[in-house]
Amino acid sequence: MCQFILALCGLPASGKSTLADAIQIALDYNVEIVRTDDWRDDAYYTDWKPEKEKPVRQKALARVKELVAVGKNIIHDDTNYYTSMRHELFKIAIENECGFAIVHVATPVTVALEWNKEREGSRFPDSVIHDIFERFDNPGHHYLWDTSDLEVSLEIQEIDDVVPEILEILEELEPAKEPKPRLITIDEFGHLDTATRLTVTEFLQEHPELRGNREVSIIRRRFLHEASERRIPVKEVHELLLVELEKLL
């Protein structure tokens, strides 16, 4: 596992901090959580405006840079609701030859509002959650580097089931690099991604003994990366990916 920066993104009160804590406990070494809430007090959201975020984010990013420089792995716990916010972390990863991953905590706004009411301590004004929801740039809508490595829905998924998937992603990370010129559109990438997932599902139905085998996931992700670079047509994905998966038999 290379040194990494893991960017969590999602609405306020979506479960990001709970997930960050669980990941840190599971890794159990050399991991620091940088929470932007550490630079906000209880009165911060009473008159919230997007421009108030800039100094908070600058302090958090400075902390990320300090920790990365001394070899720490980072979980960045923030809404990261703009693509530009995630790009700042991506740049730090490139500059320090760290791996970079995005986990989108895609809790629906209605659920986030309910969970916000149950929060211990300070709560976000509902207007802030609605405002960030309206402004939210979903990962991957503009750039391939911004595609989320995992999208989770904590209202229907157990954290104990999600964390192993994230650990697997972190284990496979390689140092981030400057993105290559886009060879395919985001929609094309999405079609390739869906095709690989359907192929893996069919393969595991035929070979249930391989369920839970990490190599299946590794092969799918490697194939997806190569398919996007080589612009393999979606109609050829099934046959070509099966050839790779059948090497596990």
Largest sheet: 5 strands, parallel
The number of E-state strands comes to 5
CATH architecture of the largest domain: 3-Layer(aba) Sandwich
What would you give as the CATH superfamily of the largest domain? P-loop containing nucleotide triphosphate hydrolases
Cα shape: globular
Distance between the termini: 26 Å
The CATH class of the largest domain is: Alpha Beta
Order of helices and strands: EHEHEHEHHEHHHH
Tell me the CATH topology of the largest domain.
Rossmann fold
Short key terms for the protein model shown above:
249 residues, alpha/beta, 9 helices, Rossmann fold, globular, five-stranded parallel β-sheet, 2 domains, 11% strand, 50% helix
Question: How would you explain this protein's 3D organization?
Answer:
- This protein has two domains: 4-172, Rossmann fold; 186-248.
- 50% of the residues lie in helices and 11% in strands.
- It is built from nine helices and five strands; from the N terminus they run βαβαβαβααβαααα.
- A five-stranded parallel β-sheet has the order 2-3-1-4-5, with helices on both faces.
- 28% of the residues are buried.
- The model has no long low-confidence stretch (mean pLDDT 89).
SSE diagram, text form:
Layout (H helix, E strand, L loop, with lengths): L3 E7 L5 H12 L3 E5 L17 H17 L3 E5 L5 H13 L3 E7 L3 H9 L8 H10 L14 E3 L6 H14 L13 H21 L7 H17 L3 H12 L4
Parallel strand pairs: 1-3, 1-4, 2-3, 4-5
Summarize the structure.
The protein is built from nine helices and five strands. The protein is α/β, with parallel strands linked by helices and 249 residues long.
